Amino acid sequence: MQERKIKLVFSYRGTAYHGFQRQRVLPSVQGEMEKVLKRLVGHEVSLAVSGRTDAGVHARYQTAHFITTCGIPGERFVQAMNTFLPDDIVVLESKEMPFDFHARYDVVEKTYRYRILNQRQSDPFLLDRAYWVRVPLRIEQMRAAAEHFIGTHDFTSFCSVRTHVDSKVRTIYEIRIDVEERDPYVKGQGQDIWLTFRGSGFLYNMVRMLTGALLEVGKGRWTPEYVKDMLASKSPSVRKVNVPPQGLYLWDVKYKE
Amino acid sequence: MQERKIKLVFSYRGTAYHGFQRQRVLPSVQGEMEKVLKRLVGHEVSLAVSGRTDAGVHARYQTAHFITTCGIPGERFVQAMNTFLPDDIVVLESKEMPFDFHARYDVVEKTYRYRILNQRQSDPFLLDRAYWVRVPLRIEQMRAAAEHFIGTHDFTSFCSVRTHVDSKVRTIYEIRIDVEERDPYVKGQGQDIWLTFRGSGFLYNMVRMLTGALLEVGKGRWTPEYVKDMLASKSPSVRKVNVPPQGLYLWDVKYKE
C-alpha cells in the first residue's frame, strides 16, 4: 500500500488532559486522537506534533502529521475524526502533504498567548481558561521589561531546568500586551489582559516563565532592569516564577512555504 | 437581635448545578450559597431570588436577598462568601437594603441573552456556554420574526405547559440579534450570534422557546408570519421548539429606584 502523509490542524481545551503527549494510563490529547485515527484507518498511527503542550494548556491552532496506508482522502479526516473525538478536541483542517513535510521540523514561527484576568473578583466563566490576578498591574512597566526579550537571546534563565536541548538560543519577534476593559457595568470587573509571544520557537516552560517574570514586574516586585540582568546571566539556577497552565494557549504555528 | 435585609448580586456558571433552586440531594446554586451563608451568619438562611434558572443555565448578574440577625456589615459578604463558595459561583456585590426591598417582587426589567455558535465545526472553548448550530442562519428573517414579539402579548404559545401563573401576558421591550464574526484566520470558524431579550419578565422556558422559534425561522423551516400566527393563537398545545440550556444567560435584573 502507498504511504501518504496527512497534516491535521486542531484545537483543544487542555483542562481534562495530562498534556498533549501520549501517556500509558492518563488521558492525553495525543492518546485520544490516535485512538480515533486507528479506528478510521485500520492500523496503528503515531502523531508527530509541532510541539507538546503541558497538562492544562490549551491550543487554538495546533498542527501534527501522521503516515497512513489507508485510502481516505486527506480532507475527509475533519468530519471523520470529529464524529468520534471527545467534544474538547476539534479538528479544523486535514490535508495530504508532500512526503517531505514535517510538523515539527518545518515550523518557522510559533505564537503563544497567555490570558490574565486582572480584577478583584474571579469570574466563573474564565476558571479553566485564564489566570486570575487580583492586584492591579503596571502595564507600561511590563511592556518595558518585555522589550528586553525581543531578538535573539540565550534563554537559559527562562526555561525549565528539565530542558534538554543543544541550544537554548531562540528568537522572539514580538511580545504584545493587549488590555481589554471587561464589562464595566458589572461591579468589580476589571481587565482582560492577553500577552502574545511570537517567535522562532520556545523552550520548555519558556512562555510561562517569561509571563511569570513580566507579572513580577507588573506587581512592582521586579524592575525591567532586573529582568534584563536575569536574561544576561544565562543562569539555570536564577529564581524563576512559573504561572499556571490554564492561561496558556498555543495560538498559531507557521510553516515554510 | 435586629433583622436586616441583605441584597446579593452574583454570577454563576450553571453547568455543574441542577438549576438555581435548592434540591434535596442534587447540587444547586441556592444550596451552595445558603450553606456558605449559614456558616457565616450562624443561623439558617433562605435566599429570595429574582427568578430561578434551570439546570445548565448561566447567570451573569443574578440578584437575591436574605434576612439575617448577624452583625456583619452588608458590603462584607462579597469577600466573606467568595472565600467559601465554589469557583463557579462568584458574589459581585452585597449591600444592606431597606426592609421593604424584595428581590423578586421589585423587579422592573430583566435581560436574558442566548448565545449561538454558528459554524461548521464545534469549538472546544464554547462547549458549556453556547448552542452549536451548524447550518447557516437567515439573520434578517430572524430579525423580522422577532419584531412580532415586541410589545405586550399573551405568550401562552411560548412557555412550558408546566407554567402555573395567573397571567401569561408579558411585555418585551427589545429583541436584538448581534452577529460577530469569529476568528477568520481559523478555517471553519463562523459566527458568534447573541440574541438579547429585554422585557418586564419572562415565563417558564419562554426565552428558550422564543429562541427556538427564531432558530426555526433562521433555518428556513418557519416563516416570520407563521411565528406571528403562533403568538396570536395563544395555544398551550402549539408545537414548541426548545433549545438547550447551555446557551442561556440571565444577563441583568433591574429594580425600581
Structure description:
The structure is a homodimer of 257-residue chains. Chain A has 257 residues and is an alpha+beta fold. Chain A folds into two domains: 4-97, 2-Layer Sandwich (Alpha-Beta Plaits); 108-255, Alpha-Beta Plaits. Helices cover 21% and strands 31% of the residues of chain A. Chain A has five helices and ten strands. In chain A, strands 1, 2, 3, 4, 5, 6, 7, 8, 9 and 10 form a ten-stranded mixed beta sheet that branches. In chain A, a hairpin with an 8-residue loop joins β2 (48-49) and β3. In chain A, α3 crosses α4 and α3 (139-147) runs parallel beside α5 (224-233). The longest helix of chain A has 13 residues, at 29-41. The mean pLDDT of chain A is 95.
Structural class of chain A: alpha+beta
Largest contact between protein chains?
Answer: A-B, 30 and 29 residues
Distance between the termini of chain A: 28 Å
Q: What is the chains' assembly state?
A: homodimer
How many domains in all of chain A? 2
CATH fold topology of the largest domain in chain A: Alpha-Beta Plaits
In short:
2 copies of one chain form a homodimer. Chain A has 257 residues and is of the alpha+beta class.
Task: Provide the descriptors you would attach to this structure in a database record.
isomerase (chains A, B); homodimer; Alpha-Beta Plaits; ten-stranded mixed β-sheet; alpha+beta; globular; 5 helices; 2 domains; 257 residues; TruA/RsuA/RluB/E/F_N (chains A, B); EC 5.4.99.12 (chains A, B)
